[in-house]
Design brief:
By secondary structure, this protein is an alpha+beta fold. The chain contains two helices and ten strands. A hairpin with a 2-residue loop joins strand 5 (180-201) and strand 6.
């Protein structure tokens, strides 16, 4: 292809020289240049198709390729990137399973009292319980005769209550069987004459009552006292005076009573 190009150029030069007219030369040159460019382009195209790939140049050009190398070490992690912008709020998820029951919290402050409700249905009657006081001592008696003898115990023979028999109607005296604090009281009807009466404990007067009788009238004389008694001590009432009819107006009939009462309030602690 190189020989052909050289011959062509020589022929072209001879043709130009042989031209006798300048006008002919000016017209022919552009056409010849165009043909030359086409020939050069055709030459380069064939050369690129016919040329074989050249082996790489260097000291290892004629040797086989080596084994692949080991992967390099991992590099250091890069810095954390900047936080992104918050995304749009997602939809609510499905409710989870109920958790275990928590501990009971502290009680709150008491609320205001509500309105009173309707009465409930009465419950069944319970069994009879024991009495609050297992130690009992009591009596209540009345007078049946008029004008008792003075300076001796008044014998109250009308018995209202004497279940424990601690009052002796034959002597008119109460005898203590349970030590403790006792309450005694008397209410006497006064008629015909004045009344002077005293309450005795262990042969000693501890309470006095006097009532002056008003003619054509019926009076009342009374008294009460708390006494601590020991086992065996006695309590009674009696009229005091010098003569049988003096200050002896204590009276009783079918419509008027004179009474004497006593009972145990609190037994001594060593009995429990």
């Amino acid at each position: 292809m190189t020989v052909l190009s050289t011959a062509f150029l020589k022929g072209l030069q001879q043709t130009i020289q042989d031209s006798k007219a300048a006008e002919f030369t000016m017209k022919l040159v552009p056409n010849l240049l165009l043909c030359l460019l086409l020939v050069v382009k055709l030459y380069h195209t064939e050369t690129s198709d016919d040329e074989e790939p050249q082996p790489p140049k260097g000291p290892c050009a004629n040797w086989m390729g080596g084994a692949p190398g080991y992967p390099g070490h991992n590099g250091l992690p890069g810095r954390d990137g900047k936080d992104g912008k918050d995304g749009q709020k997602g939809e609510n998820g499905e409710p989870g399973e109920p958790g275990s029951k928590g501990d009971t919290g502290e009680g709150g402050a008491p609320g205001t009292e509500g309105p009173r409700g309707f009465p409930g249905i009465p419950g069944m009657k319970g069994e009879k319980g024991e009495g609050a006081y297992i130690y009992q001592s009591a009596f209540s008696v009345g007078l049946t005769s008029r004008a008792p003898v003075p300076n001796i115990p008044i014998r109250f023979t009308k018995i209202f209550y004497n279940e424990q028999n601690h009052y002796d109607e034959t002597t008119g005296k109460f005898r203590c069987s349970l030590p403790g604090l006792y309450y005694f009281a008397y209410h006497l009807t006064v008629y015909i004459t004045d009344v002077k009466v005293s309450l005795y404990k262990k042969d000693k007067a501890v309470l006095f009552t006097y009532d002056q009788f008003q003619k054509n009238n019926v009076d009342q004389a009374s008294g009460s006292v708390l006494l601590h008694l020991s086992v065996g001590e006695e309590v009674w009432l009696q009229v005091y005076g010098e003569e049988e009819k003096e200050n002896n107006g204590v009276y009783a009939d079918n419509i008027n009573d004179s009474t004497f009462t006593g009972f145990l309030l609190y037994p001594d602690m060593d009995l429990h």
